Amino acid sequence: MSSSPPRTRIAVIGSGPSGSILSALLADKGVDVTLFNGGKRPDMIVGESGIPALVPVMRRLGIEDAVAALAQHKPGATFSFGSESPIQLSFRSIEGILPAYSYNLPRPQFDQIIENRARRSETRWIEKEATILVAPEGSNREVILDDATLALVPEWQGEQPDLIVDATGRRRTVAKLLKIPVKTGPRKDAAHFAHYAGWKHPGPPGQIIISRTAFGGWSWQIPLKDCMSVGVVIPREILNSFGATPGERLEAAIARDPILSAAGPDRKRISEVPIYSNYQLISDRAYGPGWAAVGDAFGFVDPMLSPGMWIALRSGECLADLIQAEGGNRWDTLLATYESEMRGRLTAWQELIEKFYNGQMMAAYATGESFMKMIPGPLMKIFNRHVDRHFAAMCCGAYTERPYSRKLLDFVCKNPRGFDPKDYAIG
Asked: Which GO MF terms are attached to this record (predicted)?
């Protein structure tokens, strides 16, 4: 009688969203998963607004009800980059493509919900940091777990796992260990943000507001259930000139910007002021013999359109779907497929976000509004509705990578009529 093939063994390093969803989905399909949970996450994390593509992932994990109980329902987004009326993006325009809503997320609690889902699975949890070493020559691996780490998993009898997954976020443990080069974006911005009480919100409940600031860069206003998350993403040298401390710099930015100052005359800061920088980074490699990277450990893009959480979760989801529970994993092919999909996704989001930074998106929108007035009629309405639906679906994560949608957006962005993208560009 032939014995069944051995279960695939995976070591996941890090319990953030990408590591937790990967562990949960792998364990659900019968993979032998061990997650090493070392280190404490910060109390406040950038990335508090989700896109509609996030909702199907929550439903797959069975956590949407838990998220809805603590998150703020998000019906859309407002973009204000020029003198014309802001773009009001309602998620109703993507009905039938994705759920017509998303959530603004209190990150520590949201991250904990995903972690709890992984803990309810058959994942083996080790409440210690794993130590990863460069593998010795001839081992057919690039990295290994050290003996002390392996000893924490007696079920593996001292054998290395089939795959070590780096889910350590922006620490990028394996990439730094192997000195893998990265590509960063051209901007050198820094972000300061905080939570405020007493903040006026002019839009529909839950609608986020993205606006160009008066001094370069942009700002966000993200309504949470009990407060407002307010942040600025500004060139570092400008932000540093605003004060000696993060709190001073953020308060000065709010006071100097007409949109923010009008919304926050009675504001009261109720949190610390975290600092983030390096907003666009993609590793030159996301895998090698015996390892792979998910989430921010592979790459992340500028947060303007709020894709970060979905990209991180989709990264773990994508890798989990490719791995078989019992042998038969052709690792080179499998990991190349994973990297290709995720690299294409990151690139597509970078391209879309750049159209906001360089002003092309807003100039194209202004052109469309102008044409609607100049050339009224059903054909123009149909075309405008078609473009708007594709634009919305790209911003929501459904059509971001679709070749037709990208070409359509390229066409309208490169052919503005009477509106100069420079007038809408973010300095």
From this structure: monooxygenase activity
pTM over 0.90: yes
Low-confidence residues of the chain: pLDDT under 70 = 1-4, 82-84, 278
Residue 1 pLDDT = 42
C-alpha pair distances (Å), 236 with each of 115, 240, 296, 386: 34, 6, 22, 39
Residues in the chain: 427
pLDDT digits (tens, 9 = 90+) for 291-309: 999 999 999 999 899 999 9
Burial of 408 (0-12, 13-18, 19+ CB in 10 A): middle
**Closest alpha carbon to 20 in 105, 103, 113, 152:** 113
pLDDT tens profile 125-164: 999 999 999 999 999 999 999 999 999 999 999 999 999 9
pLDDT of residue 380: 82
Residue 60 tokens read as 């797959």
Please tell me the total count of domains within the chain. Answer: 3
CA–CA distance, 258 with 239 (Å, rounded to integer): 17
- 8 phi, psi to nearest 5 deg: -65, 135
pLDDT of residue 299: 97
Give the Å distances, CA to CA, from 388 to 100, 151, 240.
Answer: 15, 56, 38
CA 427 to chain centre: 23
Which of 277, 298, 326 is a domain's end point? 277
Residue 87 maps to a domain: no
The boundaries of the domain holding residue 152 are 9-44+108-183+281-350
Are 165 and 285 members of one domain? Answer: yes
Give the containing element (helix H, strand E) for 218: strand 218-223
